[in-house]
TrEMBL record:
It holds the Pfam family DUF2461. It comes from Mucilaginibacter aquatilis. InterPro entries: CHP02453, UCP028451. This is TIGR02453 family protein. The lineage of its organism: Bacteria, Pseudomonadati, Bacteroidota, Sphingobacteriia, Sphingobacteriales.
Length: 220
């Protein structure tokens, strides 16, 4: 579970996002990092049982994102992210397809999976797969439990015009117009601090897994 101290550190960082404050609170950061590191290790083991693409021996540090922001090309010059993130968990062909966990105070934590904003040949391949095998995708996203945990998959951001090569009367035009193919579930601070939360997140990822398989098959 994520500790109260970890959430308190991140909350304080949101209010004091400077190098001076961070250096003065480096010990608190290291304790928070260790907490998330341990959490990531537990999550990796739990996920490996639900998805063979997750290696149970994966080192947590390889899937933990840096807290330091790249501010070179950003108008926002605050030096630190105000959340911890865990990603790069799978061994699939595309590193963009997998699971992503964000840990952020204020009930802003979430688990997500799928493919965010594919471009170029990938978006073309995914749309082609939908056109040929939409039944495989709808069998995943229209399950009552999937909708209960992730909402309506078709409600993601869409193209305002038709995708090239597809007609308005295509039976699955609502899916073909999607810009992203993401399953997303919010997690409260209270949930993240409860025993058994790794099991809950692993269960959510188990539901996302068939979506990831569909997307990987599309671009393979």
């Amino acid at each position: 579970m994520i500790s109260t101290d970890t959430f308190k550190f991140l909350s304080d960082l949101q209010k004091n996002n400077s190098r001076e404050w961070f250096q003065a609170n480096k010990e608190r950061y290291e304790e928070a990092y260790a907490n998330v590191f341990d959490f990531a290790g537990e999550l990796i083991k739990a996920l490996s049982k639900a998805d063979t693409g997750v290696d149970a021996s994966l080192e947590p540090k390889k899937c933990m994102m840096r807290i330091y922001r790249d501010i070179r090309f950003s108008k926002d010059k605050t030096p630190y992210k105000t959340h911890f993130a865990i990603g790069r968990l799978t061994r699939h062909k595309s590193v963009e397809i997998g699971y992503y966990l964000q840990i952020e105070p204020g009930n802003k934590s979430f688990i997500a999976g799928g493919y965010w904003m594919p471009q170029g040949e990938h978006i073309k391949a995914i749309r082609q797969e939908i056109d040929y095998n939409a039944a495989d995708l709808t069998a995943i996203i229209d399950k009552p439990e999937f909708k209960k945990d992730f909402g309506e998959f078709r409600d993601q951001e869409k193209l305002k015009t038709l995708p090239k090569g597809y007609d308005a009367d295509n039976e699955h035009i609502d899916l073909l117009k999607l810009k992203s193919f993401i399953a997303y579930h919010e997690l409260t601070d209270n949930e993240m601090q409860k025993a058994g939360i790794t099991g809950r997140i692993a269960f959510l990822c188990e539901q996302i897994h068939p979506l990831n398989v569909f997307l990987n098959n599309a671009i393979d």
